[in-house]
Request: fold
Amino acid sequence: MMKEANTVIAAKGFQHEKIPLYYQLENILREKILSGELAEGERLPTETELIRQYGVSRITVRQALTSLAQEGLVERIQGRGTFVTRRKTARGTIRLTGFLEDLMAMGIETTARVLEFRRVNASPDVAAPLHVDVGTPIWFIKRIRYVKNTPYSYIFNYVPEDIGERVTREELETGSLLKLIEEKLGIRLGEALQVISAALADATVARALHIRVGAPLLSIERTVYSADGRPVEYVRTLYRSDLYCYTVKLVRGPKEIGTGWHYLNAVAPPPRYGAQGLEEVEPRRER
Reply:
């Protein structure tokens, strides 16, 4: 029976037999929201309509809608239905991409304004992650990124001198720095170390992001390494907390790999962009 059910829903947007059905439905609806197919303020199909459209149970539909509501993508109003709210970008953890690449994968257009692009001497807090001596010449880039003309993030990039001198201001305004490092400079990327913390907006950041001084921000620091282990970028990005959320999904590990929580391939991008780690999750049985 389970195999027959999966065969039916495979033709309706579900792609992975071993991924829980509620999670696949959740990702299908999320993609429609993030792509703009379901616009802000638009009512989603009713539970009954989703059941009929995708051939799943009411429990599956409710699980998917509850997860989207917890992310802030939809609002469930009793007696009226489920509506798309102001969209926050959900971000994954498995693939090594930059923020811009994540948004591009979701079909969201952005623009950037370069505030500073200059050679500086590495301070102690920057020299350490880049594995250079204090005072070593490096390149500093400061930018504001916009989504639909709304200031979204304030970015501080630091790169080694030989990388910074090979990119242009114009390229930094129109593209992804990681993509430039990979495609223009031919450097293959490997791992990254990322630290997430809370921060408060000072006067400069508040003015740039159109928020009040002291407003809460999400701070993400990342050191990116090439495939041979060399640090090629240290970046600190401050995100507006009203426009950005960082969401991952965890699965309780079996005894064979050690109990505790383990990352699934995260909420975004949707499965069609890659589902490493998901195939081993047993499906929830429909009743």
In short: The first helix runs from residue 2 to 10. The CA atoms of residues 68 and 74 lie 6 Å apart. The radius of gyration is 21 Å.
